[in-house]
TrEMBL record:
Enzyme type, top EC level: isomerase
GO cellular component annotations of the record: cytoplasm
GO molecular function: D-ribulose-phosphate 3-epimerase activity; metal ion binding
Functional pathway: Carbohydrate degradation
Stored NCBIfam families: PRK05581.1-4 (NF004076), rpe (TIGR01163)
Binding site for a divalent metal cation: H32, D34, H65, D174
PROSITE patterns attached to this UniProt entry: RIBUL_P_3_EPIMER_1 (PS01085), RIBUL_P_3_EPIMER_2 (PS01086)
Name of the protein this chain belongs to: Ribulose-phosphate 3-epimerase
Stored PANTHER family: RIBULOSE-5-PHOSPHATE-3-EPIMERASE
Signal peptide: none
A GO biological-process term: pentose-phosphate shunt
Function in brief: Catalyzes the reversible epimerization of D-ribulose 5-phosphate to D-xylulose 5-phosphate.
Organism for this UniProt entry: Desulfoscipio gibsoniae DSM 7213
Residue sites binding substrate per the record: S7, H65, G141, F142, G143, G144, D174, G175, G176, G196, S197
């Protein structure tokens, strides 16, 4: 079953709690929370305070995507605030193995993200520590960008690798995911679809989650 993860980056922050409740009620599986620092990516978004506030209004799995330099400094804070999965970017970690160990020590699930231009070579060495792999299908920093088609072979390659080595690891894609691109990424092997503007940019976010789930079925041959 493909999981749908609405990204709050495109939500209306003035009514964030209501928007989160709406996608939870319609059955979205994870809530994707984009943390940006203005250094690793050119945008600044939210911190542990917002995660803590949302934890009070939602029981969804909180999928916290750290697009920040030196993520080690904030792992414990996000874990304490209510994150369930903490994903770091390989490009930001000088000691990736240690960083992933830190996440696991908090009792949370660990994810590893790859920018579009980053090859997935290091996976072999850190796979035992991973619960999720995130393939960025746009350059991180902003919602509403166009899906990069060249990421399809990379998704396929990682999917094949996971099938052989550790099939329970989730394979998430993020960036430009909508009704048109969902089928292709699922066919390539993705099983978690992050969608920001396709959900919260829609007039009815609940209907948009349903439409995305429907579109993802085509990739599974339904
Ligand atoms: O991490 C990011 C962007 O860096 C994403 O999670 C965006 O929120 C995806 O937005 P859409 O491409 O779906 O509009």
């Amino acid at each position: 079953m493909v999981k749908i993860a609405p990204s709050i980056l495109s939500a209306d922050f003035a009514i964030l709690g209501d928007q989160v409740r709406a996608v939870e009620e319609v059955g979205a599986d994870l809530l994707h929370i984009d943390v940006m620092d203005g250094h690793f990516v050119p945008n600044i978004t939210i911190g542990p305070l917002v995660v803590r506030a949302l934890r009070l209004v939602s029981n969804m799995v909180f999928d916290v995507h750290l697009m920040i330099e030196n993520p080690d400094r904030y792992i414990n804070e996000f874990a304490a605030a209510g994150a369930d999965i903490i994903t770091v970017h390989i490009e930001t970690c000088s000691h990736l193995h240690r960083t992933l160990q830190m996440i696991k020590q908090t009792g949370k699930k660990a994810g590893l993200a790859f920018n579009p231009a980053t090859p997935p070579g290091s996976l072999d060495y850190v796979l035992p520590l991973l619960d999720l792999i995130l393939v960025m299908t746009v350059n991180p920093g902003f919602g509403g960008q166009k899906f990069i088609q060249q990421m399809l072979p990379k998704i396929k390659q990682i999917s094949q690798f996971l099938k052989e080595q550790k099939p329970d690891v989730l394979l998430e894609v993020d960036g430009g995911i909508n009704k048109e691109t969902a089928c292709g990424v699922v066919k390539a092997g993705a099983n978690v679809l992050v969608a920001g503007s396709a959900v919260f940019g829609a007039a009815d976010p609940s209907a948009a989650v349903r439409a995305l789930r429907q579109a993802s079925c085509c990739g599974m041959g339904y």
